[in-house]
Amino acid sequence: MSNTSDAQLFEDHFRVTEVDQSKYDRVARIKCTSGDGATQMELDINTELFPCQVGENLHVVLATTLSLDGSKDDERGWRDVAKAGGGEATLADMFDYVCHGKIYKFEDDEKAEQLNVYTSFGGLLMALFGPYKKLTSLRVDYVYLLVKK
C-alpha cells in the first residue's frame, strides 16, 4: 500500500499578489507567487466559499487521492468519499477549499527551463508556472486541489 506522500504530487506555500473579481460576482482570479519565488499560480476561486486578499498566504497541495494512506479511491467518486459521513478521515478534512479536476495541458518552455501546467476544476481554471523539477510529477490526468490559509 502506498502512503499519502506518494499521492501528493505537489505542495507549496504561496502569497496572494493580485485578486481580480471584475468578471464574475462570486469568482475571482488570484495570482500568487511561491515562497521561494520559483513558481507562480493563477487560480479561479469561489470567493463565497474561500475569500482571498492580497498578502494572504496559502498552503496548496495537488494530490491523486483524498485517502490519508494514499490508496486509490476504489472506483468511488470524490463526492462519494465525502458522503460516507462520519467514516474515515480524509486529506480534505485538513483543508478549507477542495476541488477535483483534470489537468488538460502542459507547455514546455525549454528556453526558461520551465513547465506550465493547466487544470480545469469544472470551469474554474488553474495555471502553474514553474521549474521542471517542481512540476514534472503533475503529468497525470486527474487531481485534487487542496488549499488552506
TrEMBL record:
GO cellular component, one term: RNA polymerase I complex
Coiled coil: none
Main location: nucleus
Annotated Pfam families: RNA_pol_Rpb8
Subcellular location field: Nucleus
Domain of life: Eukaryota
GO biological process terms, semicolon-separated: DNA-templated transcription
UniProt keyword annotations, A-Z: DNA-directed RNA polymerase, Nucleus, Transcription
Single GO MF annotation: DNA-directed RNA polymerase activity
Family: Belongs to the eukaryotic RPB8 RNA polymerase subunit family.
Function: DNA-dependent RNA polymerase catalyzes the transcription of DNA into RNA using the four ribonucleoside triphosphates as substrates. Common component of RNA polymerases I, II and III which synthesize ribosomal RNA precursors, mRNA precursors and many functional non-coding RNAs, and small RNAs, such as 5S rRNA and tRNAs, respectively.
Protein's name in the database: DNA-directed RNA polymerases I, II, and III subunit RPABC3
